[in-house]
Amino acid sequence: MALKEDIMKIRKAIAAGLAAVTATGMLTLASGCGSSGTAQEENPTTLKVWHYEEDNGAMGKAWAKAIEIFEKETGAKVEFEKKSFEQIRQNASQILNSDEAPDVMEYNKGNATAGLLASQGLLSNLDSYVSEYKWDEKVTGSLADTGKYNEKGIMGSGSWYGITNYGEDVIMYYNKDMFDQNGIKVPTTFDELTDAMQQFTDKGITPLAEGAAEYPLQHLWWQLVLSRASDQFIKDYEMYENDVDWNDPALVYATQTIKDWVDKGYISKDCTGLKAEDVGQAFMNGTYPMFFSGTWWFGRFQEDMKDANVTFSTFPGSEKVVGSSGNLWVIPENSKRKDLAAKFINITLSDEVQDLMGNSGGLPIAADPAKITDDATKELIESFNDVLKRNGLGFYPDWPTATFYDELNASLQEVVNGSMDVNAALAQMKSDYDKGVQDAGVKD
Q1: Among 36, 142, 336, 437, which residue's CB has the most CB atoms within a 10 Å radius?
Q2: CATH assignment at residue 51
Q3: pTM of the model
Q4: 306, 86 in Cβ contact below 8 A?
């Protein structure tokens, strides 16, 4: 517990430090190219790359191909290091402010992550590379919002600090074999979803794979919010347009529903100690018939559940869904090989890499639809494109502050184990959210 508390203190100190960013630091955000201020190697022969994708996932496969192409085209050697999501999430500011920083790395998008680092001057301004490679012709609309940040680190406007090459949303996965074996229909409406969960519970089967130690439960909570929230509420919550009303019916409904589903046995009380990988593996092992999580799992399920009949849908009964662009490629300001890093990013947007990602179960943003041969993947891409067409991406709940990911998990854990009622949990969320926003100095 002491280690966790220390980490939280460090993260809160980083967030608080934003309020004291000097005018000189702000100039970094306005400069044309992020390479200014950091001496660049002449004719570099290596490139240090970090990401946290699994080897058998769509992005892992695609980026391995990108490394292969990069080494062949440039003659430079890639020094690849796989990091965990949590390693990078918790330690990015410290790492990027040191000589240990990579030249290019995968990083989470949003105000509290990429926006925070951009506002601290730790990420390179990519505007000149966007112009050179015409990345803004491939990364457009809501997919571009998460790559741009203003001087306060708020996404959606300003300069480019990250480039995505895929999209993602959070969907409901169904193990249809388990449904068929128990004589239960795969749901297509919200009422059918709750009815199916009750039927599984009546048979002694916990229906929904959930983990509150990491992101899965907070994604479900946010999906329930989005099913009732207005567009203005989302803008207030994510972009700070107005103060958030933490008694908004959407927030009350979502938090109450999580409590009700735990009480009814739809979600296990043991989920407080389970991480994303734990529940993903449990779904793959046939412990649970349903798993609400991201499209980043799709390729793994295709690979690791070949003998199972897995189907999916967006969350029943909701126009808005949890999701956004995929994570970003960012170039740390301390990199001495920025031009080489930009070449690598460009290769990840190439036809060959994008088509491979699509055929491996990913959601590429620049693939040729005619080159996607797998029917299930075509269905996934069509589903995501439908979400984009209706402007249905609702982003993620932890983005507004640097500490809200852990704080939101903690509040939801209290709801699950019964140590907090709905009103107390919402009050705690409000306190954490308001303090994080205030410490970050993102509101006038």
Answers
A1: 437
A2: 3.40.190.10
A3: 0.80
A4: no
